[in-house]
Design the sequence.
């Protein structure tokens, strides 16, 4: 049980680590167009991302697939940039609170596909922790649960901030979306430009 808890904590710490903020940026971009009253839509969207990264995290950690680490580290900020840019085309509902924004189906597909890429990024860290450990199924499962708790923590934080700004401080949803998505897009572009893949 102590091993399970340790890997769960490591998974949570990995995705919420400010030093490795690329995954945080993606989750922020993913839910930037929502507020707390759209939690169901956000949950479905995040679940699509979860399915994707859980699959490749397992396959890569079990060494059933191989890939270029440098390429994955480049593709992760690319997924962030694409997600943030897609937010610019989101049409904000006229109503502040009651009207639910229509969810483009393509956004679910992108979340799933981009999750596949992020899962391979997660596996790099997990494999470095596992070393030559023989049984990795339990640590893999615990690590993935930790990732999910961390992901939910980030989502709740973003949605709560959005709720306070939009519903209490009366900031326009359009402005919130442009500011948060623009900031994320700029940071993602910086990660791409400075990626060692181009060195």
Sequence:
């Amino acid at each position: 049980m102590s091993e399970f808890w340790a890997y769960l904590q490591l998974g949570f710490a990995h995705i919420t680590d400010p030093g490795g903020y690329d995954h945080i940026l993606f989750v922020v971009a993913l839910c930037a167009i929502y507020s707390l009253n759209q939690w169901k839509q956000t949950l479905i969207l995040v679940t699509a991302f979860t399915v994707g990264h859980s699959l490749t995290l397992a396959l890569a950690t079990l060494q059933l697939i191989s890939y270029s680490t440098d390429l994955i580290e480049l593709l992760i900020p690319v997924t962030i940039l694409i997600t943030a840019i897609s937010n610019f085309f989101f049409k904000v509902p006229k109503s502040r609170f009651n009207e639910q924004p229509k969810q483009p189906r393509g956004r679910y597909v992108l979340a799933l596909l981009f999750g596949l890429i992020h899962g391979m990024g997660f596996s790099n860290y997990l494999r470095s922790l596992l070393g030559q450990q023989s049984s990795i199924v339990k640590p893999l499962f615990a690590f993935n649960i930790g990732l999910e708790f961390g992901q939910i923590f980030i989502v709740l934080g973003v949605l709560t901030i959005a709720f306070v700004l939009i519903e209490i401080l009366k900031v326009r949803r359009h402005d919130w979306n442009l500011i948060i998505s623009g900031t994320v897009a700029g940071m993602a572009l910086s990660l791409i430009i400075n990626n060692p893949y181009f060195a």
